[in-house]
Amino acid sequence: MTVRLQSHIKVTKVEGGSVILDEQSGQYWQMNSTAATALDILLDKGSVEAAATTLAESYDVDAEQARSDVESLLASLRSASLVVE
């Protein structure tokens, strides 16, 4: 699966995470560092598994919980029309 941002979506790193801006609507979302890390991996590698593995190792969280969290993040990004696959 290839995940990419919609062309009108911009992501900016901020202290403690990232901010996503929809340049068409003016809406923005703030992400904590965990979600920002997961999004970076999804955009780079396009894999829920890769993102979940990194989160499990980096944040000392159960692999199953990390996968569920990444899937939930991706579903939210899709629902808000921020990413395409």
Number of DSSP helical runs: 3
Instruction: Give the N-to-C terminal Cα separation.
Output: 7 Å
Largest sheet: 3 strands, antiparallel
- What radius of gyration results from the CA coordinates? 12 Å
Return residue spans where pLDDT drops below 50 for at least 5 consecutive residues.
Answer: none
Mean pLDDT: 94
* CATH fold assignment: Arc Repressor Mutant, subunit A
Number of domains: 1
Q: How many strand elements?
A: 5
Tell me the β content. Answer: 15-25%
CATH class: Mainly Alpha
Helix/strand class: alpha+beta
The SSE string, one letter per element, is: EEEEHHHE
Summarize the structure.
This protein has 85 residues and is α+β, with helices and mostly antiparallel strands.
Walk me through the structure.
It is a single chain. The protein is α+β, with helices and mostly antiparallel strands. It has one domain (4-84): Arc Repressor Mutant, subunit A (Orthogonal Bundle). The chain is built from three helices and five strands, in the order E-E-E-E-H-H-H-E. The chain has helices at residues 33-45, 48-59, 63-79; strands at 4-5, 9-14, 17-22, 28-32, 83-84. A three-stranded antiparallel β-sheet has the order 2-3-4. A hairpin with a 5-residue loop joins strand 3 (17-22) and strand 4 (28-32). Helix 1 (33-45) runs antiparallel to helix 2 (48-59) and helix 2 (48-59) packs across helix 3 (63-79). The protein starts with a strand and ends with a strand. 21% of the residues are buried. The model has no long low-confidence stretch (mean pLDDT 94).
